[in-house]
Amino acid sequence: MNEPWEYNTIYVTFASEEEAKQIAKKVVMERLAACANIIKGMESVYVWKGEIEESSETVCLLKTTKDKSDILMQRIKELHSYDTPCIVVWPIVSGNPDYLDWLRNSL
């Protein structure tokens, strides 16, 4: 059985739902992520180039293994429309063993 800490969720924000879906489909087809959850309608407030910005974005949560996380992040950077995309790794510290087995077997 695989240990939960062998898995990660990759949190990414996108400018649109369409971009999130396009990239999610690509990385799932390339077997870098087992699945993606797309959450539209997020509002962001941040500093960019010294100015306060506000924008609507779409969140994508991608599940993968620890050993594929760096490759997945690099692939997202190649495909992403932002100069500096938000790509953050969250370790999965616990989870349904059946789900985690499915995750590993999907990659």
Estimated helix fraction: 25-40%
Number of strands: 4
- The CATH topology annotation reads as Alpha-Beta Plaits
Indicate the overall shape.
elongated
> Kindly, what is the distance between the CA atoms of the first and last residues, rounded to a whole number of angstroms?
16 Å
Mean pLDDT figure: 94
Broad CATH class: Alpha Beta
Which structural class do you get from the secondary structure elements? Answer: alpha+beta
Order of SSEs, N→C?
Answer: EHEEHEH
**Strand line-up in the sheet with most strands:** 2-3-1-4
Strand content: 35-45%
The largest β sheet comes out as:
4 strands, antiparallel
CATH architecture: 2-Layer Sandwich
Return the domain count. Answer: 1
Task: Name the poorly predicted regions.
Answer: none
Put simply, the count of helices is: 3
Radius of gyration: 14 Å
